Structure formats: structure tokens, C-alpha cells
Sequence to fold (549 residues):
Amino acid sequence: MNGKKGLSYKEAIREIEEILLQIEKDEPDVDQLSEKVKRLSSLISVCREKLVQTENEIEKILQEIEKS
Amino acid sequence: MDQKFSLAQLNGEIKKVISGRFNAPLWVVGEIAEMNVNQSGHCYLTLIEKEEDTDKIVAQARATIWSYTFRMLRPFFETTTGQPFRDGIKVLLQVSVEFHELYGYSLNVRNIDPTYTLGDLARRRLEIIQRLKAEGVYEMNKELELPLVPQRIAIISSPTAAGYQDFMQQLGQNAKGYHFYTCLFPALMQGNQAEQSIRESLDKIYAFEEHFDVVVMIRGGGSQVDLSCFDNYQLAYHVTQFPLPILTGIGHDKDESIVDMVAHSRLKTPTAVAEFIVAGVTAFEEKLDAFESQAVGLIEEILEEKRDHLEELSERMATSVRGKLETQRRHLVRLSWQSRENVLLSLQQKNHALEKKIQRIHLLSVGSVMRSRQNIDNKVFGLRRSLEQRIALDSKNLEDRLMKTRTLVNRIFLMEKQQIEFAARQGELSDPANILKKGYSITTSEGKLVKNPEDLHQGTLLKTTFLKGELLSRIVENTKK
Fold:
């Protein structure tokens, strides 16, 4: 998924895995941890939204392809 | 001068020679180059033989299958081979050789051996498979990684095919409400032009490759017979070289076609292709869930550790401060032996101040532990809160609805109850026993209730019923009369 805005699913999953690994290994302090948790939950919710929401931009491109 | 023939005489002689030499039917192998069926149902064929390597035509003959024979041979051939009887295939035919003075040489087809064609097709399929393997391309499409979320789908199908509708329906009805982007690239999915038509659609998708995650090739509802275009080398090669994973749902359960074999994944029906795609997305969402719970677990673990650590630190600090104070106190006690009276006063003051300090230090350290703990708790709480809110909202909705239902039921019960009580009271009021209880009595004459004393004569026997018994009396005088 390579929408112009935001990340692809692949990139998101890679970053999630990275953050989890960091948390597991580096045991960050509470403030760092809070930053990482924020990032994690935003990555996960972005992915979830992408699954069910319609991105008009993609829809438009495909309609144009279908017409051509 | 040699003998002169008329053309008819010559052809007549040739006919004699041919019918003498070929006086019985014989079996001949040939490829159908052209085939026409006319209105009366007669089938006219052009048979050819090609040189193995060069495809150069080295022999050709006309052949005829009369309608009576053709009506039986065609279904026999097609049900046995699973292939249409058509041009481009090799056949073994039993023919009688004929020569007509006017129309020349032709073969009259009497019978057909479908097993030859089957063998030939199988051999050709095998050759194509071996060729694709030898070229090292057979596995290439399979080796492509299926995208994490196959959400943008290029579809090759006939827009009117039932299979296409099935696919779209199955995809649209997915239970989780995933959104899919589809784009149809129409193609003929059977017949002579199918191979080229499908290849053209693939080329078009190729031009927009970056906009798609996956290609779906579906067919369905058509005749089970005509799948030969999917056994085509050119098309199969194209599929192996395609940069996006291709999923097939060509809709037949007999043999796999070569395109099925080289495609990334082969599903039996268009519906199954849609299910496959939806299952892929579901797996991705489950992965997200797993990450989420892994994260919550890790974070709780870390916070627990930090909490323990803080508590231990504050404990240690308190102990060491107390120890130091104790040393000081002892020191002072020792001093006090030297200047007891003097020192005693200041000692008490100092002691007091020290005690206060101990308390403050302790309070401070406990306070900081408390604050950190609260900070941590807030964060854990925040993580869960969104979940709980969702659950709370749902359950509140449910409870509201339950409450409303319960109130309604209660109200109905109350109304019913009131009605029943009212009815019971009515009944009580009119029961004669209750009237008697109140001190009234009932008077009858000859078994009839006396309501109007004017109707009674002197001397008539009256029966009066009280609550606790009856009395007989006679009328002495009717004063109403």
C-alpha cells in the first residue's frame, strides 16, 4: 500500500516491531516509554483505519485507470 | 499418339484406382486447420500435417463429416476429452478415401478416436510445463511475496461473468467491513481470442503496476469444456513474468490448467479467491492485535519493575538517615556526660529538630514514590481507558434498553393488576353474602325474590334469609295495597 500520505502497512509493521524490540531490550525510562507507547498506538490505529476507510485518492486513480 | 482421355474419363480412371486401392476405411492422423458446420449440420474440415520442428505444412486434405455422423461424434469426442471439437487440435479419424470426378479428392469421416487427442493434449501440456521449468520461470510468480494487505485488486474477467459478480459480492460482504479497491480489466475468458485478450489486460495492468497489490484472474459460469487457452505457453509465460502476484479462480475442478500451476495461488472458484484475500487481511489485523497486547504486557512489566525499584530506594534512604541520626545522638549523649547541664537543653532542641527532619525526609521520599506511582498508574490507565470506555458505552446502551423494557413491563403489570383488583371488588360488592353481612336480609315468596310488595296478598308465605339462617312468615296485612 503506497498511498502518498502516511506509511505503507509494511513500513508501519516494521516500525512497530522495532519499537517493541527497543522497549524489550533497552528498558527506557518513563518519559521515553510514554513517547514510544504514543507512537505505537498511533501506528496501530492508522493501520486499522486504513483497513476500513476509503481513501478517495486511490479510488480516483483506479477509476481513471478503468476508464482509460 | 497415345490414347486421349476426356477429363471425365481421366477422373473416372483415378476414381477406379483409388477405390481399388482404398476399398476399406482406414485410420489417419491430422490436425484440424479449418472447420465449418453448415446449416444442414454437415461438417467440413481442412486437415493438415505440419513438420515437427518448423511447423511447415507438408500435407493437406479436405474431409467431410456428414451431419448424421457428426451429431454422434461431436458429443462423444467432447465428453471424452473435455475439449471442444474445433480447429487447432490433432485428431485420429477413421476415413474412407473418396474421389469424385467433379469435386476431387476428399476424406469421408466415419469415426474418431478421442484418446489420441487426449494423449496429444497431455503431451503438449507436459512439453509446455517442461519448457517453462527449463527456462527457469515456472516458480517466478509464486516466489513473489503476497502483500501484507492485498487491498488494491486488479481483476481480469469478463464483466458479465457470474464468477465476477460472485467475487465482487463476496469481497463486499466481508464481516469486518474491510475496504477493497477493485479495478476491472475486461477480457475474453474462453475461445480462440481469450489468450490474446488476457495478455492485453495483463499488459495494461503492468503499465499501472504501482497502483495494485495483486491481480485476480476469474472466470465462472461458462462452459466447463473450453479451458484450452489457459494451457497456452505464451499466456503461462506471461503469468510467470508478471511483477504482481496473480491469483486464479478459473472455476473448474477437473485438471489444473498450466496458468493455474504457474500462478501465485490457485483457488477453485472466484468466491474462494475473495475469501482468500479477506482471510489475508484478517490475518494482518490479528497481527496488529497481537502487537498491541504484547506492548501492553511489556509496558506493565517495566512499570512494575520501576515501581519496585523506587520503593526499595526510598526504604534504603530512610534506613540510612535513621542510622546516621542514631550515631549523632550517641555522640551527643557522650558529650552530655561532659557538660551535662549545658548541653542537655541544646541537645533536646537539636533532637527535636532532627526528629522533624527525619519526618520531612521520610515524607518527601514517600511523596516522590507516590507521585511516580501515580504518574505510572495514569499512563497504564490511559492505555486501557479507551478500551473500557468503549465497553462501558456498549453496556450502558444495553442497560438503558433493559431499563426501558423493564419499566414498560412493570407498567403493564401494574395496569393489569389494577384492573384485576377492580374487577374483584365489583364482584365482592354484588355478592349477596356480603350484603347479608351488612345486616340486610333477602325476602322471597314461592322461590321468587320479592321486590315489589304490591304484588303480595294477605296470608302469603314469605321466606326471609339472614346471614345466619332463614325465617318463614305470613303476611298479616299488606299496607301498600
Summary: DSSP finds three helices and no strands in chain A.
